[in-house]
Amino acid sequence: IMAFAPHHRRDGGGLYSFSSRPRAVESRPRYREPPAARSMQRAHGNIMYDRRVVRGNTYGRHTGRPDPAETRRQPTVRQRSPAQRAAREQLRGSSPEALLGRKHVHMQTERYLEELSEVLVSENAECQTDAFLDRPASPLFVPAKSGKDVATQIEQGDLFDFDVEVQPVLEVLVGKVMEQSLLEVMEEEELASLKAQQRTFEELRNSRLAEVQRLQEQERRHSQERERRIAQQKEVLRKEKETAEKIAARAITQQYLAGLQPAVFSSLRGHGFFYDPVERDVETNFLPWLMAEVNDTLRKRSTARQTLDNLIQDVCRKRVEAFMELEAQQHTDDT
């Protein structure tokens, strides 16, 4: 249905004619919106903060947010021409190519699967409707039943009878609980008796340990006293022995030193402590110098002889080599 703008003018003949081009009627929802949505749409605000108001120069390119009304007036995807749909599909990003040995398959992601059929190209047509109606409640989607119904036959006595079947289980549980309880009580009594015996044993052990410590201390004091008396007696005996040794040494010394002085002088004279200075000077100074000079003279003579022998050997070796070369040359000339 085409609608015309109310703007008109009057010709000279008294007739009215429309001056604006016809345009399509805006598509409106079929049902009324909830009160909350209507109140939000009718909310008023400061126009200075509205994004649709252009700021700056009025002759530049408008880059603001498009008007929702203009957006609604744009044709939908189904109303676009095939050329526009092809261009939009070319600009839309596609999935990467499948790997070797694989291929891309379209899959459904909805909760209830439906059979896909070929979608036919259809066109939408609009018409002027009456005032908004209340939107009815959306029915619950129930998928169509598929398959066959099956059933299971249950004979008498096949199901579980709780009153009958639970009795042996309950008897086992109660018996096990009673047995465990008796065992725990007996264990507690046994532990109590063991603790009493342990306390009695500890008291007896502590009393015996105290008596043993007292006896050990008494024995230690006796041992120390005995060792001290023995040490004192040993010290007395050592002093007596030392005194007797000193007396015997004094007597032996006096007896030995009686003829010691003549023996010492004779021994010193025999060992050379009393000597002639001239003879000692000759032995310590002259004879070593003389032997050193003789050794030096002999070493020089030996060096001279060795040098002469080396010279004679070198001359002989050179003459032998010259003779061998001469013979080799004569042999070469003869051949």
UniProtKB/TrEMBL annotation:
The keyword Membrane does not apply. It is found in: Cytoplasm, Cytoskeleton, Flagellum axoneme. Keywords: Cell projection, Cilium, Coiled coil, Cytoplasm, Cytoskeleton, Flagellum, Phosphoprotein. InterPro entries: Radial_spoke_3. Residues 1-94 are annotated as: Disordered. Residues 23-35, 64-73 have a biased composition (Basic and acidic residues). GO terms for cellular component: cilium. Residues 201-254 form a coiled coil. Its main location: cytoplasm. Residues 1-10 have a biased composition (Basic residues). Belongs to the flagellar radial spoke RSP3 family. This is Radial spoke head 3. It comes from Salarias fasciatus (Jewelled blenny).
